[in-house]
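INFO batch 0412 | record 1 of 1 | parsing
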Amino acid sequence: MHGKDEYNGVSRAHAEDAVRTLLRWAGEDPAREGLIDTPRRVVKAYGDWFSGYKDDPEAYLARTFEEVAGYDELIVLRDIAFESHCEHHMAPIIGRAHVGYLPSGRVVGVSKLARVVDAYARRFQVQEKLTAQIADCIERVLEPRGVAVVVDAQHQCMTTRGVHKRGVSMVTSAMRGALREDARTRAEFLRFVDIDGAKNHV
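INFO prediction complete | emitting C-alpha cells
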C-alpha cells in the first residue's frame, strides 16, 4: 500500500470514478444530491467487505496452548456467522460456518478459529473454495489429527437475481484426517453442529 489513498496500485479517486461509471450505466446521475457521496461510501465499504485480503489467516493460529491436561477429544466451534461475496456476481453470501478439530497436543483460542473464517470470507469467494481454505489452513498450521468444516449459506446471486429462489441454502463440507476416515468421529462432529437446526439461524 502506498498511503491511505492508494491500494493495490489503484488510487481512491480511480475507485470512486469506477463507482460513478456504474451508477451512470445503471441509468443514474452520480451528481444528484443523494448520490454525491455514494462513491466514497462504496469504496469505504469495500475496504471493510474485502479486508480479508490484508489478513494472514495462518497468523491467527500461530499462538497455541499445550497445557490442556492431555485433552485430545473433538473441539467444535459452531454457528460462526460470516458475510462474504460471490466472485461471479459480487453479490453477498450470508451464512454460518461450523469448525471442528481433533488436537494433537496443541489447541488454539476459540476466537482465532472465527478470525480464520472471517479472513477467508472477506474476499471474493465461491463457497466450495471457502470451505476448503478454512479446513486446509487449520490442518496446515495446527497439524491436528483431523479437521472438519461445514458451511451453510444463502447466496444473494440466487435470491435477488437469476432464478430468484428465496429460502434456499447451500451446504458444503471439508473433512480431513480422522474426521474423514473415522465414521464415528465424523458423525459426532455432525451431531454437534446439528446442521438441520443450525439452518434456522442463517
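INFO post-check: Residues 197-202 have pLDDT under 50 and may be disordered.
INFO record closed
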